[in-house]
## 1
Amino acid sequence: MAGEYTIAGGLADARRLARQAHVMEAATLAFLSSAGLRPGWLSLDVGCGDGQVSIAMARASVPRGRAVGVDADAESLLIAQRSATRAGVEAVFAQADAYRPIAVGVFDLAYARLVLSHLIEPAAALRAMVAAVRPGGTVAVEDLYLGTLRSEPPAQALNDLQDIYGATVRFHGGDPTIGPRLPALLSAAGLECVRERAVHNPMRTVADKLFLAELVRNMRGSVLAARAASADQLDDLCARVENAARDPRTVFYQARIHQVQGRRPVT
Ligand SMILES: C[S@@+](CC[C@H](N)C(=O)[O-])C[C@H]1O[C@@H](n2cnc3c(N)ncnc32)[C@H](O)[C@@H]1O
């Protein structure tokens, strides 16, 4: 399960995912709202990581609704369940593979953020999401278009980071430029009324920008396995990304995110 996933999971990645969640929060909430998420809905968050979006889904579903988060990584799920309990929301978490529907035809919404770009077979994962929603239910995914990560003023460290990130994800079978392919993938999975929007999330505070330094740290094993950089090059890259992040003049822009949704036909 998840053999292609390239970032260290569980506790090791919790701080990075929390920073990433903050960077993406406003755009994700707007996307979920445009996908129709509302009180009473039962939602599925595929590849939920530490459950930040699942918890937001559960909050938007009260009263009577709830969210289910699934992930391959058991340690992340424990963190997610603890956070949901602390937040007092109706979110439950289970270990499951994105390629298999956890239940068939029951969810109002199936969602995945930054998961499909890591998968060897994103179309199969999308088919599982389509199977999970009821007829008339919505499938919504957000994923990136690498090549558009940037700093203003420019920082060479971010160019190097995206080269190494791209080579690593591709080596492990993913597609870090999947964003613009998503509308066609959703249509091919049998969805109708497919709609797309692209967002470019800014990182203005040092706390937000450090998300990228943590990404470099947490991909170390898979970067080395892919021979996308040496250990010394990675140490140097991490220091340069961190320096650029701590420079109060820089604003980082996450790689462009494509938010795509479609509806399962009723008949
Ligand atoms: C980049 S993280 C994104 C986490 C979360 N969606 C978010 O946006 O905060 C990708 C997540 O997908 C999970 N994942 C990767 N491959 C998977 C698979 N085949 N089945 C289930 N989960 C998978 C990883 O364990 C990880 O938690």
## 2
Amino acid sequence: MSYGGYQKSGSATTERAIREEIVRVGQLMHSRGYVTATDGNISARLDRERFIATPSGLSKGAMSPDQMVVIDWEGKPVGGNRYGAARDLKPSSEILLHLEAYRQRPEIGAVVHAHPVHAVTLSIAGVSLARCLLPEVIINLGMIPTTEYATPASPEGAVVIRELIRQYDALILQRHGSVTIGKDVWEAYLNLEKLENVAEITFKLLQIGRELPFPAGAVEKLLDKREKHGLMLPGQREELEAACGACQLSGYCPSPRRSQVVF
Ligand SMILES: [Zn+2]
């Protein structure tokens, strides 16, 4: 997907502005219940060699711009972390997952990791979100796959997102949380809102116990739009058609890789 590389026009570009944007998004994540206690983390690309990230051990709702830590590709603090408010703070151990996303998607500018309640609940219940439900989500995110389980804050966390993050901007981490990416912190956060919204609607549909399918031909039109906006990656259309059941209309149904529908 084209995010315009490192030129994040229209979004925070100076280090100070990025720090402030991370703080603002942290407050939103906390106030909307996407993180509990000191859970979750946010990072943004500063330049080709450095990233700004939330430190470990702080509530995302009560951070200050000076507490952000600057790290390198190994997740090690660099530069100004030895002074000021970030002096005694360390980068989150979940930063390996963020760095993997930047490795796999060189065009992105930010990664947001949260523990949204409905998304985590459904992943534990074995209900997949890799299916077609909301028109705008099909256009913008394609679908929302779930990774294999990995121990949080371990190197496995980076391994389980490796393949899926190449194809999709919003993932569920099995029994753990979410990873969303974007051209900047704000866009990565909005993708988190979309993810949890799909999860909440799915949760409510399960309570009601019934659901109407898309009208015939509707999904193809949404996939056409995704293609027109330049968001469709090679091979993805077939995967989405299979996940949506749209292929049944065309008579060609490739087997979906990770679109098991539980209800
Ligand atoms: Zn986590």
## 3
Amino acid sequence: MLTPALLRWLASEDARAELHALTASPPDDAQLLTTLTRLRKRFSPEQAAALVELARLRQRAETKFPGRARAMFFEREALEQASPAVVAAWTARRFARFARVADLGCGLGGDTLALAEAGCRVAAVDRRALAVSLAASNARAWGLDARVHPVRADVTRPAWEVEAAWADPGRREGGRRVFHPDQLQPPLASLLALQRTRIPNLGVKLMPGLEHAAIPPQAEAEWISLGGELKEAVLWLGGLAERPGRRATVLPAGVSLWREGAAARVAEPGAYLYEPDPAVIRAGAVGDLAVRLGLWQIDGDIAYLSGEARIPTPFARSWPILEHHPFHLKTLNRRLRALQAEVVAVKKRGSPIEPEPFRRRLHRTPGGRPVIVVLTRVLNRPWMILLAGT
Ligand SMILES: C[S@@+](CC[C@H](N)C(=O)[O-])C[C@H]1O[C@@H](n2cnc3c(N)ncnc32)[C@H](O)[C@@H]1O
């Protein structure tokens, strides 16, 4: 288990050369025992294990911290909870006008680093000694230590006031993911209380499943996706809220769509099917996207859109529709045979069918024309849509 003392050692001259070599080529499972045996001849068992673990975590962290993970310090759970650099840079941008900010619950410093890079001086606060040490080591690794001030404290009992802060509460309890804002560490309610009393401008990162009813009236809620995957919802409070309401942000494009409450018309599918980005769906902005692009919904309750033309947009993916029919397995297999189709994916929305077992019941033409089967509802009837896959 990584401790602050072991972390200090990992960052020391004593460990440097070995850590460098292991980072360049971390051992896989088959090489693990041989590597540990070799390392134990020079280092203690704890040091040997820590060297190998860090080298492997650096490799894994490359997706969250591209190009920079190799010089950083990690602990498994802190890495799992760390904000990816692209998302952290997006949320940190709003803080650029504040000279001093606090990162409440800094973990290994994913957000601290982004805030410091945005130009702020950052108090990196965490109740775990190891987290504070990790954040400090990573600030040094990024050359930002002059702007990062590690503080070990419980953020729910602050002895200070700060104009603006970011909070990324823990979303795990006993190794399990939590789904309610009351179960966060610290809980959302205590962060909202801090905003009322001590921190007028606050951004709180929350689980993307955040209920709209949990959004305070004057807050802005922003759902953020990265590469088509929903990452988080952020509550922006006080002066950090651009305006009260909900918006979807799509990264890495860095574009946002506000929910204005527009209603799309509903009609049968046309030439293209559009699947809105999950951030757009969670923000409740599907109708707004449809109106903006001149599309329509294929069902009043289903987040698929359709249109006669293919319009490039960062807010949705789209495919040409080959054909569509009321749902019927025999008809589907007949049509797949006629099309000489290789089903590359089964998607569903508003259908009780489980895609994977269903896929095994479909006619196959190995090496055939790639087709995506969509199981959904059209005008409130079970429907199937065949898309040209790639
Ligand atoms: C989700 S992690 C933060 C990850 C971080 N934003 C990053 O990108 O690396 C949440 C952190 O909050 C800390 N935490 C939870 N409750 C706290 C409290 N009451 N006071 C201070 N820190 C707390 C945990 O120790 C944990 O490191």
## 4
Amino acid sequence: MDIRRNHRDMTPAQKSAFIEAILKLKNEVPSILRPGRQSRYDDFAQIHKNSMGLGDPIIPNPHRTPLFFPWHRILIRQFERELQAAARDPGITIPYWNWSMVGPDNPFTADFLGGNGDPFREQRVSTGRFALEEQRFQINVWDTHNGDPGLQRNFGNAPDEPLPSTQAIDTTMSRTPFWSHPLGWANHAEMELHNPVHSWVGGNMARASSPNDPVFFLHHCYLDLLWERWKRQHPTEPPFSSAPDFEHARMNSTLIFQAENLTAPWPQTWTVMQTLDTEELNYRYELRDLE
Ligand SMILES: [Cu+2]
């Protein structure tokens, strides 16, 4: 059983193993979606871009629907498994970032995810292993036309969208049911917690191909954890619910990761119901992180 933890609790060796696994997936594992044009890491940016209606649009778009949490759960779990395979290390798991920049909560350090973009150099990240100068992390998937080859960040560029406060998180966690427009738990979590973090990090994270920035996976890992925490805090609530207008978002709906008639990124499929128990997917969070 894989255990996911706060990045702050990782040892330096665990941190560098995680970064190294990303660099292997980025440089040593061939793409399945666009062989010869990108890497397996880049396939995840491609899938996400497609899910946002660009490139080869995925129907249904899981964003702003009850599928948001189940769909991203599978996306990041598949990424985690591919990291393990790339590094030949079953101990690799995706850590989470709790959206705090205070002290050890800040993941944007030179020994981990690298820092903010450099305003004098196209907002490119210039510290850490993902800096373009290190020559092991080049962007290969863009939303539309070819863009900058460097990973870009622009912290706090949207002053009206700060990182979520603990109070904002608490407010969201008190919402029920799972889905109810606009104030259900998932609705609120996507719009009030998830979206502002993408905007706050800025650069690649603010675009449809946001998995280009590895922090995407730490961000979505925390959202995934919050779903588990919400389930524990509201034990009488169904862990998933939908609405009549979402005919593609039922318990027995199969999650879609590719446009019709195009290559699937992986052979397995999952229904929404098969995503509801993380242990069925062979991972879990520590109990103390769920309380
Ligand atoms: Cu998304």
